[in-house]
Amino acid sequence: MLDPTTLEIIGDHGIGNPRSRVAHSCAVFRDRLYLGVTHPNGEGPEDAARILSYDFAAGDWQEVHRSPLRPADERAFAADILRPGGGRRVVAPEGVPRERGFRGMCVFQGASDPAPALYVSTISNWGGLILRSADGENFEVVSEPGLGDSRLLSFRALVPFKGRLFTTPIGSISEGKLDRNGTIEPTIFTSDDPARGGWQRASAPGFGDSRNGVVFQLAPLGDYLYAGTGNPTRGFEIWRTRAEGKPPFKWERVLARGAGRFSLNASVASMVPFNGALYIGTGLPGLGRDRAHDIGPAAAELVRLWPDGSFEVVMGEPRFSDSGLQVPLSGMMPGFDDAANSVIWRMAVFNGTLIVATHHWGIYRFLMGSDAAPRGGFHLWASTDGETFTPITTDGFDDPFAVGIRALVPTEHGLVIGTDDHGVLRQRAARQGAEVDLGEGSGLRISLCQDPAPHGAPALGPFG
Amino acid sequence: MSVFILCTMRSYSSLICAMLGEHPELYGLPEINLAVAEDIGGMMDFYQRRPHGLHGLIRSVAQLRSGATNDDTVAEAEAWIAARRDWSTRRMLDWIEAEVAPRRIIDKSPVLVRAPAMLERLYRMRPEAQFLHVVRQPAAVCRSIDRLNAAIDAETGKSLSRRVDAEQVWLKCNNNVLEFRKRCAPGQCLTLQGEAFLGQFDRYAPQLCEWLGIRSDAEAMAAMLHPERSPYACLGPEAARYGNDPNFLKSPAFTPRPIEIEAVADGVDGRAFKPRTLKIARQLGYA
C-alpha cells in the first residue's frame, strides 16, 4: 500500500516554468522518466509545451523538446466553448506555440522501428500530431496534422496492442470554436508502423451509433482491447475487439447505458485492468456538471467489468441493473463519498495495488464564497483487492489548489504522481484574502511515492 | 419495515404494487394516501371534494377488519374511520401494519409525489421505510394521463384534459422524488423502470426481493405473477369503488411481455419535450 509519508517531490512549480500547469502525459523510456506538460491557454512563447526528461539517479530534469512557434492566424484565436471569453488573448510578436500540450505518451516498437521508441501525441490548434523519438532527445513529427484532418485538436489514448498502436481523437476546432472534450471524429485510429504513418480507422465512427460522441479511453485486458466512449444521451459504453485481421476491426459492445446510471455516467474518464477485471472510472467535466449536454451535477463512479460482460459498482450509487442489484462493493457512494470528486482522472496498478486518482473541485467552494477557507485537493485511494479502499490523500497532499492528478505511472523507483495545478485559482484566493503562499508561483508538481508497508485502516462507507 | 412506491400517476404502479403485494412476505395496499395530512380529520377534509381519494383507505379498513369488501363492511369501515378523526395518520398506519403483520405493507399513493411536503410527512411517519421510485417513459405517461382525463371529461362534462399539462406532471413528480431521494440514506430509495420490471420480470423481480430482504424462491416469484389475486384488484362497492387505477381494477391480470420504449427525443405526438424533461428522462434511463 502506498505510504504518503514516503512522498518525495522531484519536480515543482512547473519544473522551470510556473505556467506549465498540467502533467499531462508520462512514460518511462530508456531508464528515464519522460513528462509531457500542457499549458491551458498557450498564449505566447512562454506557453510552449515541453517534454521533460528526469534522471532518477542524478535527480535532475532536462528539457528535451519544446514546441516550435508559428504565426498566429485565426485558429490561434478559436474560442474555447468551456471558457466563454477565453481563447488566446495576448499574442507575442514571435508568434504562438504550435503545441500547447502533450496529451498522450507511450513506448512502442512499430514495424520499421529498430528498437522501442517513445511516441507522443500533441495538442495543437492546427491539428494534433504524433511525435516519435528513438533516443529520447530528438523528436520528429511522424504524422499529418490531425492524422489527415487538421480540425482534430489532439489524441488522448495512445495504447500499444498486438503489435499495433491505437489512438483516439479528442477535441476539435471548427468554425472558430474549440471543443476540448468533444470531437468530430469519434473513432479509433491504428497503425502498425506509426514511424511511417499508415494510420487507418480501427472502428466505425461511434461504433455505428452517433450518440457515442467520443472514444475517451483504451485499455487492453486479456485477448481484447477495450474502448470506453462518451455518450451523453444514454451513458457511456464499453466496446472491445480482438484486433484480428485488417482494420477496421470487428467490435462488440460489452457494457452500455453508463452501467445502469445512464446519463450521469456519461463518460469513461479512465480504465485499467486489475486482477482479471477492467476498472472503469467515470466523470463529468467542470464542477461535475456537463453544461454542454445539461447533465449533472454528479460525482464520479468506479465500476468493474468482467470479461463475461457482467459488471459491479465498486464505488457509486446503489441501483437495479441488467447485471443484478448493485450495492457498491467499497461501501462508498459516488466520489468516494465526496460530491466534489467529479472525475476519476487516472488509475494505475502499482506493486499489486490499484491506485485511483480524482479531479476534485472543492476549492471552488471557497472562491464562490461557500467555504470560509480554501479546502479541496485531489483524492488518491488505494486497494489491494479492488473492493476495500484506503485513502492515501484526500486533500491533494495538503494542497487545495492541486485539483487533480493527470499523470500516474508505476516505475521501479516508485509511483510517479503528476498534478494539475490551478495557479489562477491560487491568485484569486489570495485576492479574496486567503493566506496563500504564492511563492515561486504555481505550476505542476511531480512526486514519487513508495509502498513499504500497509497504511491505515480500511475505509468504511455508509454500508459499513 | 414498510415499502412505499413513489411515482407519477400512470406509471404501472398499480400493477407493480399489486404484484409485489402478492409476495408471501408483503401485503399490497390500494392507495391509502395517509401522508396527505397529519391526522385523519385533515385527510377527510383534504378529500372532501374528491371522496374517491379515501376509497383505498376505506377498502383497506373494510378488508382488514372484516376479511371482505362489500357494501356492509365498507359502510362499517367508513364509520370506523370517521370515529377516528382525531387519530394521527401515523397512528392509522401503525394500525394497518399491525393488522397485516408479519407481512410488510407495500403502498403506492401517487398523490404524495406532487408535493414535497407530503413526501416529507411520509418520511417522518416512517423514516426507516424503503422507498421504490417507479418510473415510466414520459411520452407513454403523457398519453395515458391525457386518455384518463379525456375519459373523465366525457363522464363529468368537465374540461380536465385541457387544463392538465401531462408533461409538467411527469416532470414535477419525478423531480420531487429525485429531490426527496437526496435526504434518504444510501440505498434507502432506489429507482426502477416499470418497463424493465414488467418486461424482464425474471431479471428484475429477484433484485427487488434482494433489496427488500425477502425471499426470491420459485413460489414467491410465481405468486407475484398473479396481481389479480389481491382483494383490491377489482372495482369495489359503490361507496368505495376505486382506490387504484380504474383500468387496472377492470383488468388486473399480468401478462409478461417485452415493452418497447420510445425515444424521448421524439417527444410526444409530434411535440418536443422541454429541455428539463429531456434531462430528467435521460437521467432515468430514457434515451
Walk me through what this model shows.
The complex is a heterodimer of chains A (464) and B (287). Chain A contains 3 helices and 32 strands. By secondary structure, chain A is mainly β. Chain A has one domain (4-449): Methylamine Dehydrogenase, Chain H (7 Propeller). In chain A, the strands form 8 sheets. In chain A, strands 7, 13, 14, 15, 16 and 17 form a 6-stranded mixed sheet that branches. In chain A, strands 1-32-31-30 form a 4-stranded antiparallel sheet, with no helix packed on it. A 4-stranded antiparallel sheet of chain A has the order 2-3-4-5, with no helix packed on it. The radius of gyration of chain A is 21 Å and the shape is globular. Helices cover 49% and strands 8% of the residues of chain B. Classes of the chains: A mainly beta (464), B alpha/beta (287). The A-B interface holds A 211, 232-234, 257, 260, 262-264, 294-295, 317-322, 324-325, 327, 333, 461-463 and B 185-187, 190-192, 196, 200, 203-204, 207-208, 210-211, 265, 275, 278-279, 282-285, 287.
Please render the helix and strand layout as text:
The complex is a heterodimer of chains A (464) and B (287).
Chain A: E1 3-11, E2 22-29, E3 32-38, E4 50-55, E5 60-66, E6 69-70, E7 79-80, E8 96-97, E9 101-108, E10 117-123, E11 130-133, E12 140-141, E13 152-161, E14 164-174, E15 177-179, E16 189-191, E17 200-201, E18 214-221, E19 224-230, E20 238-241, E21 251-255, H1 257-260, E22 268-274, E23 277-282, E24 302-305, E25 311-315, E26 341-350, E27 353-360, H2 363-367, E28 380-383, E29 390-393, E30 402-411, E31 414-421, H3 423-431, E32 446-450
Parallel strand pairs in A: 7-15
Antiparallel strand pairs in A: 1-32, 2-3, 3-4, 4-5, 6-8, 9-10, 10-11, 11-12, 13-14, 14-15, 14-16, 16-17, 18-19, 19-20, 20-21, 22-23, 23-24, 24-25, 26-27, 27-28, 28-29, 30-31, 31-32
Chain B: E1 3-7, H1 13-21, E2 26-28, H2 40-46, H3 55-66, H4 71-82, H5 89-100, E3 104-108, H6 116-125, E4 130-135, H7 138-156, H8 160-163, H9 166-182, E5 189-193, H10 194-199, H11 201-212, H12 218-224, H13 246-250, H14 275-283
Helix pairs in contact in B: 3-4, 7-9
